[in-house]
Every structure is written in structure tokens, then in C-alpha cells.
Amino acid sequence: MHTDVVLLFLLLWMAGVSGQTSPKGQVLQPCLNVRSKREMPLTEGSSRKIVSPISKRSPDITKVWGQKSEQLLSIDDHDFTMRPGFGGPAVPVGVDVQVESLDAISEVDMDFTMTLYLRHYWKDERLSFRSNNNLSMTFDGRLVKKIWVPDMFFVHSKKSFTHDTTTENVMLRVYPDGKVLYSLRVTVTSMCSMDLSRFPLDTQTCSLEIESYAYTDDDLMLYWKEGNRSLNTDEKISLSQFLIQKFHTTTRLAFYSSTGWYNRLYITFTLRRHVFFFLLQTYFPATLMVMLSWVSFWIDRRAVPARVPLGITTVLTMSTIITGVNASMPRVSYIKAVDIYLWVSFVFVFLSVIEYAAVNYLSTLQERKERVLRERLPCTCGLAHPGTMSASYSEVDANTTGNYGLPEENGTKRERMLVQLAMESDQITGHVGSTAYSKVGIDTHIIDKYARVLFPGSYFFFNLIYWSIYC
Which of 66, 98, 211, 359 could cysteine-pair with 264, CB 3.0–4.6 Å? Predict the structure, then answer.
């Protein structure tokens, strides 16, 4: 009984204690709220700044650091081994080119080297993303390997590479609607079929051809983004041997029997060679050698040590010029314009040597005939008055002229000769001349006289025709 009473009082006491603590908690709650309000400026001051009126706009996710590009562009959610719109119409890919430099043009290798910025434009909706300000995102070459890009290559190229100093020169720019700009800096060495028949007075046309390697025109449509304005060149581009006349673009279809039709873009440029270098190094020296060979026509024909070395020197010099020009040229099977000029000049120099050989030969014949005449003619010493003798002999006919004691040799008929004695009026001389001797001497002298006129005239006429055809 007592135990039950004790338990009853204990329960009542505990109930009274719980009723007293509840109001106290209600009174203390405002204090806790006040404390929390005091602590809020210290702990949440940064969050109050974020929700300020200036920064109430939601941030652009393209400029927020911390999110991976793969997640932003949803790269992992798509298969980028296939082209955009696979199975549908061909994806259009626009191209424009900025030519930075023409580095070298080689006639021997028949190629040229060009450095350019190659830019591609297309749309891939798989790369679209949300952007409040419609701002693009720019990436380097590391992201290019994870998405689809056009597989361009240079037709007829011998070698090409993408610059990688200080990093790989590749840029990728993606717009919120999925449009993509892909740019890279490339140096390419490509073939250029040159026609050197007019070298060095020639004009060459070369082209750089761009094409997709795997995708036919059913899958990928290549086109110049803005026509001829898609090709831009640096105004400072210049070459030592060529003048760049013009650049232009064209588009054609290329057919391969095993794969089909492909769109091909052409960058065509026309080059005109500077001829002044070749005038100084080839044409002027050759012309001077030809003119130097004409000097021998004014040298005495008996001055063999003077005329022979002059002719040999000019021939060897022309041979050296021809060899030097051909050493820097490809071994083509047709004749070039410079070959025509050099070989014609070589013939003129060679003919000047032959001319002296003819003069020297005729001079030798002249001397032999003179010796024979001196041996066969009688001595005219002690003749009467020279004037009478000259007159009497000049009026005598050749058929009535005697043998003058010339003996017969081997039973042959005696040779009848007309002898004209050239007698000086102021002295008596024993020299006997002959008409044959006089004629031989005049003919030999006339050869040099004719050569002095014919050689320069012919060479001038050749130059007139040559430069009128090739210029």
C-alpha cells in the first residue's frame, strides 16, 4: 500500500517537472533565434553578396571554371566516330584559307612549298550546349581527337606537317548551336607540273588541291565558304625568282573508279619568272662571248698565235655557260628557250673559228702558188724600160704568149700562162706577179671583210626574232 502511494507521488512529481521545462524552452527559443541572426553575417556574408542585385543573373556555364569540357559538350553521350547526321544528307563543310608564305619553288623537283592557315566550318548538333550569352568556347588540339572533324588531305602532296611550336597549332571553336570552327597551321610541299619550253621567259601555273579522303560527295560536301574571298594572301609574300600575278579558287569533282566521286577544292596561283637574273648570268655573257669572237676578223690572218687562242677561249667559255645552266635544270626531253639562245651563240663562236681555218688554208695555198710561179717564170733582170715592158706584155693575148722556156714535164702539154709584170714607175724591180696570185690574195682578204658584216648582222637578226617570239 505504501509502495503504491510512493509510486503515485513519484509519477506526479515527474509530470510536474516536465511541465515546467516546456515553458522554459519556449522562452529560450527567441534567444537562440537572436543568436543565430547575429552569427549569420559572419557565416553567410559571401552568400549575401552572390544574391546582390548586380549578380542576381545566373552565370554563363561556358565561363564557369570547374566543369569538364566533355561533360559540357556531352561528348561521352554520343558516338563521334560517325559524321554529323549520319544516314542523312551530306554534311556541308565550308573552307577558307589564309596563305602565309610561298617558301620555295623548285624546277628540278617540280614542286612548291606553301605555309597556310586552313579553316573548316560545319555544324554538329551533338556539340550544342546551353549558353545565356550565346558565347562560344575555344579549345586547343587536345579536344580535336575526341570529336568528329573533316578528314582533309592535300592531293599530289609530297610531304606536309602541322606546326607544333610551342604547342600544336590547332584551334577548335564551338558555338552554342553546334557550329564548329576548326583551324590549323600547315606547311605542305606539293607537286607542280611545269612546262619549261619557254624557260626562263616562262609563266607557270600551280595549284594546291584539297579533298576529303574517306567521304564521297554523298556524305560530305566541300565548298569555298565565300567563293574567291575565301582565299586571302599576305601582301608581303614575295619570291626571288617569280612575280606572283594572281590567286584564285575553283571547285571540281574528282572521280575514282573504286570509290566514287569526291569534292575537290583548288587553290590556283600564277607565277611569272623574273628574267633580269638570267639576263645578267646567262644572256649577257653569251652575247659578249659571241662579240669577242668577232675581234679575230680584224686581226692579221698571219697572226696565228693571236687568232687561234681567241677562238678556242670563246668556245670553251660558251661550253662552260651551257653546262652551268643545264646543271640547275631538270633533264627534260624538249628544248628550252635558253637552250636555243645558247646553242645558236655557240654555233656563231664555232663558225668564227672555222672562218679563220678557211682563211689560213687559203693563205697556205696562196703561198704555194707563189712559189711555183717564181720557179717557172724566167728571170726578168736587165729588161728595157719598165714602162715599155709593161705595155708590151699587157697587150699580148694569152694564146699568143710563148712558153718562155718552160720545159715539158712527163710529156704533158706545156702550161700557158698570162704573165703581167707590175712595174713601178720610179724603180726597176724583178718581182713577177701573176693574175692567179692576185686573185687568190683578194679572195682571202674578202673572206674576213664579209665576215665582219655577215656575222654581226646575222646575230642581230637572230636576236630580233628570238626576243620577238619569247617576250
Answer: 211
How confident is the model at residue 414, as a pLDDT? Answer: 38
* C-alpha neighbours within 13 Å on the C-beta side of residue 184: 22
Tracing cell 550569352 back to the chain, one arrives at: 133
CA gap 79, 75 in Å, rounded:
8
pLDDT one-digit tens code per residue, 151-202: 999 999 999 999 998 899 999 999 999 999 999 999 999 999 999 999 999 9
CA distance 179 to 300: 88
| Cis ω before 412 (30° cut-off from 0) | no
Residue 455 has pLDDT above 50, yes or no: yes
Q: For the full predicted model, state whether its pTM sits above 0.85.
A: no
Helices 435-470 and 337-376 cross at an angle (nearest 10°) of 180
Query: Which three-class secondary structure state does DSSP give residue 65?
Result: coil
DSSP assignment of 170-229 equals EEEEE-TTSEEEEEEEEEEEEE-----TTTTS-EEEEEEEEEESS--TTTEEEEETTGGG
Phi, psi of 397 (to 5 degrees): -75, 155
Q: Rounded to whole angstroms, how far apart are CA atoms 289 and 348?
A: 10
Residue with cell 710529156: 411
Q: Which amino acid is at 381?
A: C
Percent of the chain topping pLDDT 70: 70
Between CA 265 and CA 171 the distance in angstroms is 22
